[in-house]
Amino acid sequence: MTETIETTPPIAIVTGGARRIGRAVSLALAAAGYGVCIHYQRSQIDARELADRIAAMGLPVTTAQAELSEPGAAEHIVSVARGLGQLDLLVNNASSFDYDSAEDWTRDGFETQMATNLLAPLDLARHFHAALRDQGTTGSIVNLLDQKLFNINPDFFSYTISKFALSDSTALLAMQLAPICRVNAVAPGLTLVSGDQTPEQFDAVHPQTPLRRGTTPNDVAQAILFLARAPAITGAVLPVDCGQRFAPSQRDVMFQDTHIRGPEDK
What we know:
- This protein has 7 helices and 7 strands; from the N terminus they run E-H-E-H-E-H-E-H-E-H-E-H-H-E.
- It has a single domain (11-194, 215-249), classed as Rossmann fold.
- 39% of the residues lie in helices and 15% in strands.
- The protein has a 7-stranded parallel beta sheet with strand order 3-2-1-4-5-6-7, sandwiched between helices.
- The longest helix is centred in the middle third of the chain and has 29 residues, at 107-135.
- It is globular.
- By secondary structure, the chain is an alpha/beta fold.
- One of its GO terms (molecular function) is oxidoreductase activity.
- This is SDR family oxidoreductase.
- Keywords: Oxidoreductase.
- It comes from Pacificispira spongiicola.
- Belongs to the short-chain dehydrogenases/reductases (SDR) family.
């Protein structure tokens, strides 16, 4: 008689996991066999609908509400996720994306962006690493950055600084948290309509990269899944932008509605 050994799915935490790119990431991880802890701030209805969909796939799932800029949020999220089973992956997807410039940024606005885009991922990484150590297992973290880091322009001043800081922190964390935890990042290009961008502007610039297509939420999700399953990769930043970083601009791409030159235009 052959003994059946039951295995439990690995558990992933996805911050901002209920909507937009986070939703695509949550669904891709579930399709790959992960249980998911869906963090949200205000999108309770979306989070519950998504949780029901993942539960219907026969996978463990829960939601965790938290304002990432508040003390104790990271510890709460990791604690909720641990109730599902063995933690394996943390995706720091959530971010604050508000326009400012070097001329008009405010201390309050800057601190809000840094709290959400830098301090929260660092705090989550710390508690996630501690949980892995307690479990006696290894796992990985994937931070979401932005192709703006390779294609710099002054728009979204505080946001960009916070992502530069998170990029360098990715390398520091990879060094410090090894061998228990690998830490990597993906840097998406323009993926969804953002800020004050109109649908017409988005449609005009989204496919006008060297690859003649725009980044999709699933492109980002599959890159995260790749890094989560790549045991020899840590401290890496993977651009997922269809080459958008090779089209320098004085303004953020969301303000463009003109053609970005590709190889055959030269």
